[in-house]
Amino acid sequence: MTTQGDWPIQEVARLTGTTSRTLRHYDAIGLLTPSRTAHGGTRCYDAAGLVRLQRILMLRDLGLGLQAIAEALDSDQDEAHALRAHLAWLESERRRITDQIGSVRTTIDTLTTKEALVPSRMFAGFDHTAYRGEVEQRWGKDAYRAGDAWWSGMTQDERAAFLAEQRSIAQAFADARAAGLAPDSDEVRAVTRRQHSWLSVSATATGQSGVTAEYFTGIGEMYVADPRFTAAYDWAGEGTAVFVRDAMAAYAREVL
């Protein structure tokens, strides 16, 4: 029987669309601990547990691995603050996706009726300036203007090559982690050097003096703290973002 503020594992699994086996695994790895164990060994969860589970499921939907989720949760103990930040990002993404859906539908209708394409309607939701407000808030208006000028001035092939290098570096980090190499090993340091060079391209283009040890370490921390950046590395393998952060911190200490 369910009591106020006390939900058994079977009901939690039903409400969230997950499985009791998954919840037991979260308990086993310390990601989500039940508030108590009832008679017969049934795990039960209180309100705080449900809030934590909601955050786990949202971060999982963003593509984060369990280790990265644990680190993200541990780095922000203020549940309400973390959820407000996540809600703001979700609402932003919903608006962007809604715009993209509308633009694609418009293109389909236009192709079907053989009308003339209208470029300004085709690319709603695909604008790289969608995060202008966030960039200006974090790093200032000058940083946004410089970054926007740099990105807009690149050719399509140059942009593709820049993004391809990031994915190649992410895969190299994932392979190194899978091979059991240490973040401060010589082999990983070579990959981290590529990461430093890759970041230096945009830093130099936007008028920065270079990628300092402090800046490099801070960017590495952001790869773990911000789910969007975590997903940019964990697609290559769960835990890659954490490995990248540790490798960048070691490189900053030993090289920069």
Automatic annotation (TrEMBL):
<keyword id="KW-0238">DNA-binding</keyword>
<dbReference type="GO" id="GO:0003700">
    <property type="term" value="F:DNA-binding transcription factor activity"/>
</dbReference>
<dbReference type="GO" id="GO:0003677">
    <property type="term" value="F:DNA binding"/>
</dbReference>
<keyword id="KW-0010">Activator</keyword>
<dbReference type="InterPro" id="IPR012925">
    <property type="entry name" value="TipAS_dom"/>
</dbReference>
<dbReference type="Pfam" id="PF13411">
    <property type="entry name" value="MerR_1"/>
</dbReference>
<dbReference type="InterPro" id="IPR047057">
    <property type="entry name" value="MerR_fam"/>
</dbReference>
<keyword id="KW-0804">Transcription</keyword>
<dbReference type="InterPro" id="IPR000551">
    <property type="entry name" value="MerR-type_HTH_dom"/>
</dbReference>
<feature type="domain" description="HTH merR-type">
    <location>
        <begin position="6"/>
        <end position="75"/>
    </location>
</feature>
<protein>
    <submittedName>
        <fullName>MerR family transcriptional regulator</fullName>
    </submittedName>
</protein>
<keyword id="KW-0805">Transcription regulation</keyword>
<dbReference type="InterPro" id="IPR036244">
    <property type="entry name" value="TipA-like_antibiotic-bd"/>
</dbReference>
<dbReference type="InterPro" id="IPR009061">
    <property type="entry name" value="DNA-bd_dom_put_sf"/>
</dbReference>
<dbReference type="Pfam" id="PF07739">
    <property type="entry name" value="TipAS"/>
</dbReference>
